[in-house]
Amino acid sequence: MEKAKVLLVDDHALFRKGIASLLNDLPELEIIGEASNGREGIEKAKELNPDIIIMDVEMPELTGVEAVRLIKEALPQCKVVMLTISDDDDNLFRSIKNGAQGYLLKSMDPDDLIKEIKGLIRGEAALSKTMASKILNEFANLSKNQKEVDYHKFNLTDREAEVLRLVAQGITNKEIAAILAITENTVKNHLCNIMEKLHLQNRVQLATFAWREGLVDK
């Protein structure tokens, strides 16, 4: 199995080394580089073309929130996960809007971090429970007074709308395939079509869109 290439971006060298030591034990990952600020992170990303970037939010020269946007513009297939000490709502939503596939807290248990990164490799979003709750609560509140939305106005088929609603509920591709009695590859194809139609980049943005537009029951 080909290893996923990982770039670490954090202004604390000791923390970078700790994460590298933790992830180096995973056979499916390879740490290919490190950077100490957002600007250096962008340069390293363009140079090394990593599959995954684990990046701090608050850094000198250029914050991780801004770096995500620039990295995704240059490397749209790269998965970026924010790893931060702060649970600030503004940074969370701005990071997701800028293309981050995950938002994890540095206070989380190392085993939970490993679990989230493994899930990311499988195509799942990497979100601490606290962060996931913030997202769901925010968009449940936004949608609770909305009338039922006609998803056809977004050019989605009935099956694509079903897939989108299930993704928004945090259900994995494998579970969606079982629920809808289709193959996992078919689920992936639907997701690609949905993201293209909605001009979105990842599962977190899809879930956010679905909650915002009232496509998911509370």
CATH architectural arrangement of the largest domain: 3-Layer(aba) Sandwich
Estimate the mean pLDDT confidence.
Answer: 86
Q: Can you tell me the overall shape?
A: globular
Helical content class? 40-55%
> How far is the first residue's CA from the last residue's CA?
40 Å
The count of domains is 2
CATH class annotation of the largest domain: Alpha Beta
Please indicate the percent range of residues in DSSP E strands (runs of 2 or more): 5-15%
CATH domain topology of the largest domain: Rossmann fold
Quick one: how many beta strands? 6
Write down the secondary-structure element order: EHEHEHEHEHEHHHHH
Report strand order across the widest sheet: 2-1-3-4-5-6
- The structure class reads alpha/beta
Number of helices: 10
> Mind describing the biggest β-sheet?
6 strands, parallel
CATH superfamily of the largest domain: Response regulator
Rg: 17 Å
Low-confidence stretches: none
Description:
With 218 residues, the chain is an alpha/beta fold. The protein folds into two domains: 4-131, Response regulator (Rossmann fold, 3-Layer(aba) Sandwich); 145-212, Arc Repressor Mutant, subunit A (Orthogonal Bundle), CATH 1.10.10.10. Helix content is 52%, strand content 13%. It has a six-stranded parallel sheet, with helices on both faces. The relative contact order is 0.11.
Write the layout of secondary structure elements.
Elements: E1 4-9, H1 13-23, E2 29-35, H2 38-48, E3 52-55, H3 64-74, E4 79-84, H4 89-97, E5 102-105, H5 110-121, E6 126-127, H6 129-143, H7 158-168, H8 173-180, H9 184-198, H10 203-212
Parallel strand pairs: 1-2, 1-3, 3-4, 4-5, 5-6
Helix pairs in contact: 2-3, 3-4, 7-9, 7-10, 8-9
